[in-house]
């Protein structure tokens, strides 16, 4: 059985909080290696988003080896796997 990514909003929010804790501890953006400022509001290009190592649209999930990692919105969009350059529905800010 393939796990469903972020089956509920509560699970998604809990995962974002875990990644945000790592940012507070000093973990940088996984793409540009610059610090992530959790106070920058969405949808600023420098706002915090959670990136899936393997995008959920490509079969990635939130369990096991598919690590969730911090990113800036613009860095994640640049990497984007969508034709229009947008990030997937599971990316976003805290709260």
Give an overview in words.
The protein is of the alpha+beta class and 95 residues long. The protein has one domain (9-79). The protein contains 2 helices and 2 strands. It has helices spanning 9-24, 73-79, and strands at residues 48-52, 68-72. Strands 1-2 form a two-stranded antiparallel ribbon. The chain is globular and about 30 Å long. The model has no long low-confidence stretch (mean pLDDT 78). It comes from Mycolicibacterium arabiense. One of its GO terms (molecular function) is zinc ion binding. This is HNH domain-containing protein. Residues 46-82 form the HNH domain. Residues 51-95 are annotated as: Disordered.
Give the topology, please.
Elements (H helix, E strand, L loop, with lengths): L8 H16 L23 E5 L15 E5 H7 L16
Antiparallel strand pairs: 1-2
Major pleated sheet: 2 strands, antiparallel
As a percent range, the share of helical residues equals 10-25%
Going across the major beta sheet, what is the strand order?
1-2
Question: What does the radius of gyration come to?
Answer: 12 Å
> How many structural domains does the protein architecture include?
1
Low-pLDDT residue intervals, each spanning 5 or more residues? none
The share of residues in extended strands comes to: 5-15%
Distance, first to last CA? 29 Å
Elements, N to C (H/E): HEEH
**Strand runs, count:** 2
Briefly note the structural class of the backbone. Answer: alpha+beta
Rounded mean pLDDT score: 78
Give me the number of helical elements.
2
| Global shape | globular
